[in-house]
User: Which sequence fits this backbone?
DNA sequence: GTCTATACACCGATAGAC
DNA sequence: GTCTATCGGTGTATAGAC
């Protein structure tokens, strides 16, 4: 059973995400957040001990929903290059659909590095675990194997998506981003070989 | 001839970089900056119209000094893979030598995306031009050519360095970062072929 | 030109009425 | 529980003495 306080906390977290997405973390004051949520200022401090407590929840709960390793659902009948390309294209589409949200995630991640380094570390190690599993699955389904440790390839993939996100947010150049995604898929695929063969 | 005002502006910019590096952009208030520079608050507004004007200068002047495409000086007797690996390793060494500075640059870039998008765009297009020239030079010196448009490869390289920076700042895992750099160099090199040959 | 003192807005947080 | 009113602190910016 959800208590009223928990509903309020959830509403405030959602409002905070909207404010950060629209105007940035520096504009996400408690006043701006309660205005977005349609509450009074005192209600904020009834639901949360402090603004820091809400930011903690933003980092752990909202960043955790981020899917850094996007691989397509249907894996059949594709090469590893096609699979990586489809996955990265899916992420790019997601970014283009809701750029403000991805910008907010990047901003929260950067804030976390400074303010809550242990939360940031835990979050990225979670990303790496998910990406590792996805890349292993992708290799398995395409009869290939990775010639570098899979966590390394996963970390490379995550670095790539972070970097592609930032650069696209800077210039919003769709054509260039698609070209980069295609090149990245090709380059990453070269880190695999047909299973059973030597490197 | 440097006027006293220009000296003051330069001193304030340098102080601002130190504050952002040490405590983040959100802590870089005018008061914190003048304290770091050893001036009074009024001197700030004698040199700058407003805090925004200093931030503009931070973005254009300080971000412009960033070298995103680091390639080693001596190019002889290396393969393209070795060249890329040496370049990326050089960047990683630079990051590890002064992580606070790179974190400040990333923070400023992200701020610029929101507050001064046209400055951010100009800055990244400059990065791309430099990286493009470097990658063309690298291919030329190793008797190879790029199988993707060079600006695409350059953008991929910039995305990679941005992503590698963020992920290393998160967990400071040197071994993993070196492993990623090696894998990235290998993967990128696969986007080249010996000159004169078909793809 | 450079300082101290201060104006005024907004911040996070809380007291106390209802 | 939820509100209005307000506290103490800090932010940017400026006035005015020197």
Assistant:
């Amino acid at each position: 059973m959800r208590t009223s306080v928990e509903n309020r906390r959830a509403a405030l977290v959602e409002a905070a995400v909207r404010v950060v997405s629209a105007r940035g973390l520096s504009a996400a004051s408690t006043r701006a957040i309660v205005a977005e949520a349609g509450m009074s200022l005192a209600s904020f401090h009834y639901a949360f001990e402090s603004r820091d407590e809400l930011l903690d929840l933003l980092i752990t709960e909202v960043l955790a929903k981020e899917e850094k390793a996007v691989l397509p659902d249907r894996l059949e009948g594709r090469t590893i290059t096609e699979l990586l390309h489809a996955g990265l294209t899916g992420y790019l589409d997601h970014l283009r659909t809701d750029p403000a949200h991805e910008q907010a995630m990047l901003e929260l991640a950067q804030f976390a590095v400074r303010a809550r380094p242990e939360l940031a570390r835990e979050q990225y190690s979670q990303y790496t675990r998910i990406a590792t599993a996805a890349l292993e699955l992708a290799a398995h389904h395409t009869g290939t194997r990775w010639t570098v440790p899979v966590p390394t390839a996963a970390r490379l993939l995550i670095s790539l998506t972070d970097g592609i996100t930032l650069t696209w947010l800077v210039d919003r150049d769709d054509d260039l981003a698609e070209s980069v995604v295609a090149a990245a898929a090709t380059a990453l695929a070269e880190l695999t070989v047909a299973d059973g063969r030597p490197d």
Notes: Chain A has a mean pLDDT of 95. Strands of chain A lie at 144-146, 192-194. Residues 4-5, 39-43, 46 of chain A lie near DNA strand D (CB under 10 Å from a C1'). The interface with chain B takes residues 24, 26, 103, 106-107, 109-110, 113-114, 117, 120-121, 123-125, 148-149, 151-153, 155-156, 158-164, 166-167, 169-171, 176, 179-180, 182-184, 186-188, 190-191 of chain A (CB under 8 Å).
